[in-house]
Amino acid sequence: MTILLYKGATKVRGDEILPLNQLRDRYPDLHERHFQKYAGRPHGVDIPVYPLNCTWGDVVFLSPVHPAPIFQALHESGRIGSPTLDYWTLDAGLLDPANTCILLKRYDPELRPQPPEDFVPYTPEAAAALAEPSERALHRLRNLDATEPLYPWADIPHILHRGPIPARWFKVSAQETRADG
Length: 181
Fold this sequence. Notes:
Layout lengths: L3 E5 L7 E2 L2 H7 L1 H8 L12 E2 L4 E2 L3 E4 L4 H10 L7 E2 L1 E5 L8 E4 L15 E3 L2 H5 L6 H8 L15 E5 L2 E2 L3 E3 L3 E2 L4
Antiparallel strand pairs: 1-7, 2-11, 3-4, 5-10, 6-13, 7-12, 8-9, 8-10
Helix pairs in contact: 1-2, 3-5
């Protein structure tokens, strides 16, 4: 059985999905656009990723959790309309465990940096064990008020891969539309 990881679909330039720090050198315009999500916390890209001996800006982010329940919970909070999901899938077995780790995100989502014990070794099986969002995470998303930042992935485990990932490894999902309720 293939274990899947998920990444939000985006336009790709070149033949690799690049970490933010590599975008800066190759495609400064893309770097500027993607760096905007760190506007209020530019030091965020310097957060250590201990097991990979690098920083947040040196990794490609993937999720072991399908995006549908996350965005359905945001919809239930009234913060977004009925979500249309556009994502890619990746066979978890393609990633080299030496360049990949899991960040559990068990603590306060604003905690910076994440404690070293929240990073665990990567295997496809470990990723599969984290494929369901926690009830705590879904509860937080369902109960956001109008002033709270969205941060859909704040307390969802992350798969962090140091360095680029070949774009050909990703499969485009069929676009999904979730019905209200």
